[in-house]
Specification:
This protein is mainly β. About 0% of the residues lie in helices and about 50% in strands. Strands 2, 4, 5, 6, 9, 10 and 11 form a seven-stranded mixed sheet that branches. A hairpin with a 4-residue loop joins strand 7 and strand 8. It is globular. The model has no long low-confidence stretch (mean pLDDT about 95).
Amino acid sequence: QVQLVESGGGLVQAGDSLRLSCAASGRAFSLYTVGWFRQAPGKEQEFVAGIRWSSGVTKYEDSVKDRFTISIDNARNTVLLQMNSLKPDDTAIYYCAALFTPFSDTCCTTRNYEYRYWGQGTQVTVSS
């Protein structure tokens, strides 16, 4: 049973940083793609960043490309999302999700319906 548990959200001011963690368990994740998504109040869920576990290849949504960094801590089986220079528009619930991609050598689908496993989400609030 795959489990994803997010942590690290909170209330910060514009310009601050946060690091989100997605602790993964229940599988060997080397053949998985892990994505971070977010959903702001009244808006659709959107892709933020993704990473292929085996290769470390990453993909970012344009608005976060120069501010967020996704990475893997293999020792802790955890996917990290370092978020710098946070803006009020980054306020949302952030979810991590995993997709089994044994035959893909590209990164990463941005379509949330393709991800099978989801965490419960962590709230990020950025005040102006």
